[in-house]
Amino acid sequence: MVLLDFVVGIPSPKLHVPHAFKPTRDDRGWFINPIGPNPWWTVLAALVPALLCTILIFMDQQISAVIVNRKEHKLKKGCGYHLDLFMVAVMLGVCSVMGLPWFVAATVLSITHVNSLKVESDCSAPGEQPKFLGIREQRVTGLLIFALMGCSVFFTSVLKFIPMPVLYGVFLYMGVSSLRGIQVRTLLQRAACRLPGILSP
Predict the structure, then answer these.
(1) 61: how many CB neighbours lie within 10 A of its CB?
(2) What is the distance between the terminal CA atoms of the chain, rounded to a whole angstrom?
(3) Residue 120 bridge partners (DSSP)
(4) How does the average pLDDT of the chain come out, rounded?
(5) Which residues, 6 or more positions from 173, have their beta carbon under 8 angstroms from its beta carbon?
(6) Which sign does the torsion angle of CA 175, 181, 183, 185 carry?
(7) Mapped to the 3 state alphabet, what secondary structure does 55-87 carry?
(8) Which site from 66, 178, 190, 200 is most exposed, i.e. has the minimal number of CB atoms within 10 Å?
(9) Cα 82 to Cα 113: distance, rounded to the nearest angstrom
(10) φ and ψ at 164, to 5 degrees?
């Protein structure tokens, strides 16, 4: 789709990327003064919002970890994922000092990653459903994913040709595909199947 959009020259909205590797604002450098021109009492006033943000980030991280570490996934190294919370805390501090967006656990991305690493048995008989054996637990794919994300700053000359509808389609597919196997989705399907029998006189 990206190649078709480029060849045909469709006037679609494209991904906005900077032309140079520098801060987005010219009036500041890479590191930000935490107080800046603000009065001293703003530090105390920021404690309450900071506490709320801490709770929100912790809950977001832990909800993703609980979904990933479900018993149905048969993880053998589930406790190893607790290291992610430490890395999130470190990156939050780095991003805050540099004025970058906070990096937290992405629930949809985490579920999609786990689903892509599922190991199933080979079907021998026709019509036999493959049996779920477990998750191929490793950190190579995660490391490569974030390494490529970091290298994306050097690919801005190519990324600027990606249409925004293509990105929206990828995100929509990831969100819908990650719903497979979620208990809420299964409960809604069962309720929808029973609804005609309940409504019929």
Answers:
(1) 20
(2) 50
(3) 132
(4) 76
(5) none
(6) positive
(7) HHHHHHHHHHHHHHCCHHHCCCCHHHHHHHHHH
(8) 200
(9) 17
(10) -65, -35
Q: What is the pTM of this model?
A: 0.58
Residue 110 burial (10 A CB sphere; 0-12, 13-18, 19+):
buried
Rounded CA gap, 94 and 105, in Å?
16
Reduced to 3 states (helix: H, G, I; strand: E, B; else coil), residue 142 is helix
CA distance 174 to 172: 5
61-77 pLDDT, tens digit per residue, is: 777 777 777 777 777 76
**Residue 182 and residue 110 in contact, taking contact as beta carbons nearer than 8 Å:** no
d(CA 113, CA 145): 10
Among 187, 36, 173, smallest CA distance to 111 is for: 173
